[in-house]
Design goal:
This is UDP-glucuronic acid decarboxylase family protein. This protein is an alpha/beta fold and about 325 residues long. The protein has helices spanning about 15-30, 85-90, 90-115, 150-170, 195-200, 220-235, 250-260, 285-290, 300-315, 315-320; strands spanning about 10, 30-35, 55-60, 75-80, 115-120, 175-180, 180, 205-210, 215-220, 220, 240-245, 250, 270.
């Protein structure tokens, strides 16, 4: 296939965890991929292997500012946004801007190019949920002025703006509500439970559990998440769809499992729970199942083993300094 015949897709947040895996997937599907990222939480090492390819381009750019792309565009995946609490608490205004102004810029770009756009929303739109599991019909329980409000409300605004562009301009839009996803290329110092626990275990440190560890989480392996996003983009469904793994476990159980799978002998220590930390998170995935014929395929053990192998493959200095 000639380059000009390939489908052209813009992926924002391309140097991040999910964005880089999405770049890999769309390259594997023979798309022409245009990556964009301002590297505020991303890392070019995640996409360095793509730079030599003729069907990959990369632009270092802040999408909260005007975004221009030359030539045709068929699809846009808007994944640029700080995603871990440690990041969005450090850069709350940039987080609000990329969810609002950034989304507006990309919706405008999609409209001008006649492209279909999929935006990355989050299970955080459900806040600290009062029902479990959370289906797409649940409106959520978010504290707008709490510390996490900057992320949750940016994403809620993003969804509202995306629906408005669909309703007013007839734009082809998709909204994925991503639940906790993990795998290779997560950052050792991003504050999320899994990379933190794995890094601590591999360094022979104690594992730090917040609260009493009875809060639950469900973790989706990255290849399952990417498959769900891929199917949703190519589907004709406009309203939000949850993609996540409903296999729920307590944070303490996760810590114990990681100690076992790494073969280390770390102890678990307990620290105060952060403000507004959700007590429970579990996706209802009936919609994804029915509309996209999607269910997670990678077991937690397999996913954790692959993730541990990735962190073990990093240079010892990176593991020690949490610099990857
Ligand atoms: P990440 O921090 O690894 O990646 C985000 C990327 O966006 C980074 O490379 C960062 O540099 C880039 N970015 C941030 N602001 C930008 C801006 N203004 N302009 C250009 N680039 C910018 O995070 P991730 O885990 O890969 O998350 C990607 C997306 O998925 C985010 O929108 C996030 O809200 C969403 N999401 C992720 C999860 C998860 O479990 N990983 C869960 C729910 C939602």
């Amino acid at each position: 296939m000639k380059t000009q015949e390939k489908k052209r897709i813009l992926i924002t947040g391309a140097a991040g965890f999910l964005g880089s895996h999405l770049c890999d997937r769309f390259i594997a599907e023979s798309y022409h991929v245009i990556g964009m990222d301002n590297l505020i939480t991303g890392d070019l090492r995640h996409i360095a292997h793509l730079f030599k390819l003729p069907n990959f381009e990369f632009y270092q750019h802040d999408v909260s500012k005007f975004v221009h792309i030359q030539g045709r565009l068929d699809y846009i995946l808007h994944f640029a946004s700080p995603a871990s609490p440690i990041d969005y608490l450090r850069i709350p205004i940039q987080t609000l801007k990329v969810g609002s102004l950034g989304t507006h810029n990309l919706l405008g770009l999609a409209k001008s190019k006649g492209a279909r756009i999929l935006v990355a929303s989050t299970s955080e739109v459900y806040g600290d949920p009062l029902i479990s599991p959370q289906s797409e019909e649940y409106w959520g329980n978010v504290n707008p002025v709490g510390p996490r409000g900057v992320y949750d409300e940016a994403k809620r605004f993003q969804e509202a703006m995306t629906m408005a562009y669909h309703n007013i301009h007839g734009l082809e839009t998709r909204i994925v509500r991503i639940f906790n996803t993990y795998g290779p290329r997560m950052r050792l110092n991003d504050g999320r439970a899994l990379p933190t626990f794995i890094g601590q275990a591999l360094r022979g440190e104690d594992l730090t559990v917040f609260g009493d560890g009875t809060q639950t989480r469900s973790f989706c392996y990255v290849s399952d998440q990417v498959e769900g996003i891929y199917r949703l983009l190519l589907s004709d469904y406009v309203l939000p769809v949850n993609i996540g793994n409903p296999d729920e476990m307590t944070v303490e159980e996760v810590a114990k499992e990681i100690i076992e799978l790494t073969g280390r002998h770390s102890a678990i220590v307990y620290r105060d729970l952060p403000i507004d930390d959700p007590k429970q998170r579990r996706p209802d995935i009936q919609k994804a199942n029915k509309l996209l014929q999607w269910t997670p395929q990678v077991s937690r053990k397999e996913g954790l083993l692959r993730t541990i192998a990735y962190f073990e493959s990093l240079p010892a200095s990176a593991l020690k300094q949490k610099d990857f």
